[in-house]
């Protein structure tokens, strides 16, 4: 019996003992192609020598010094680099240990920004359905899946949720993409008015919706419209790029492809690429200036914030991305993988949509392509596919069709940026076998 509390309390997963390049090996000697980068984490693959060397060097110098007493070179250098590489005046960086902590940080920073301007009545966040922002209570409250929030509802702040930008499911037959986008923005403006614009702190959204909806990109102009409404009504715009950020979309930040500048950006996963637990919030200059000129302190903090080894790992990851020109690789390899997936599944009767940005790609599974009717969630098709894929030495990230009852099962592919075309072809062919095997299950 394992004493660890695992995700699945009834099943202990294989024991990972070695990881190199795009493969992970378990204690029974089986190897798995990491086609999902874990959960869109391992952007450089495993065992990258430059990142390991940077971590070792930092551990040898100083593994930890509490931020109440010291700062450290690695955290300072990482922050300077992130600020230099980010567009506009996203000049300030708060370092934490993961995506949920980063989201909590952004929520509190946004609240304190309004407080320091004498606007204590601004106490409500606005967010979207079909989104995931983390599992801590604040992040869960802004997250957009009722089934995730439900068990903890009495503990959560009240957050109004508007429709996500989910063209495959929600654009009506005959409706143009522009009209669909305009309708979403009207709904958002109505929600702002209904909540009372002077009560709102910020609008929170994933730029490309990750695991919850399966790599759903925004329609053209959607985020420009959102930015305009936020400016008009005095809300901050918080973009969650925990999954789609740090190069996974083909640009360092996915919002760069939308022509907008958010006020706060939430980061995790690819920032440390799995080498260390690290998350961050990027903040625009006026936000930090207001706190600095006001109370002089951000009322927040964590024991492991600005951790030297985590910062050294993340800094090394950023340097590798630049040195090996991996942003360009993401665009090229993402297009190649989408082409392979379209060849393999473009006519598949149960693959309704293949979508995404860069190397963040989702496949939505449907019972019927024409009606887009999902499979019965009780069949747990996504879990069957994951199991069949693991049996074939392939990791894909599954999500159920239970999400508020209006979406098919889907699987997420987010391979490391270093994956070769041959490896991407291997991933596609193993996935085709796994899908065929899952669809042969007795009840399907
Ligand atoms: N935001 C998004 C978009 C995510 O995908 C995740 C994790 O999956 C989080 C936030 C939470 O990050 P973490 O699991 O590191 O707390």
TrEMBL record:
PROSITE patterns named in the record: AA_TRANSFER_CLASS_3
Gene3D superfamilies, sorted: Aspartate Aminotransferase, domain 1, Type I PLP-dependent aspartate aminotransferase-like (Major domain)
**Coiled-coil ranges from the UniProt annotation:** none
| Pathway(s) served | Amine and polyamine biosynthesis; ectoine biosynthesis; L-ectoine from L-aspartate 4-semialdehyde: step 1/3
Q: Give the required cofactors.
A: pyridoxal 5'-phosphate
Q: Show the InterPro entries listed in the entry.
A: Aminotrans_3, Aminotrans_3_PPA_site, PyrdxlP-dep_Trfase, PyrdxlP-dep_Trfase_major, PyrdxlP-dep_Trfase_small
Instruction: Name the source's superkingdom.
Output: Bacteria
The UniProt entry, under Pfam families, shows:
Aminotran_3
Reported EC number(s) for this entry are 2.6.1.76
Q: Which GO terms describe its cellular component?
A: cytosol
Instruction: Give GO MF terms, alphabetically.
Output: diaminobutyrate-2-oxoglutarate transaminase activity; pyridoxal phosphate binding
Instruction: Give UniProt keywords alphabetically.
Output: Aminotransferase, Pyridoxal phosphate, Transferase
| UniProt record similarity statement | Belongs to the class-III pyridoxal-phosphate-dependent aminotransferase family.
Which NCBIfam families does the UniProt entry name for this protein? PRK07483.1 (NF005685)
* Name of the molecule in the record: Diaminobutyrate--2-oxoglutarate transaminase
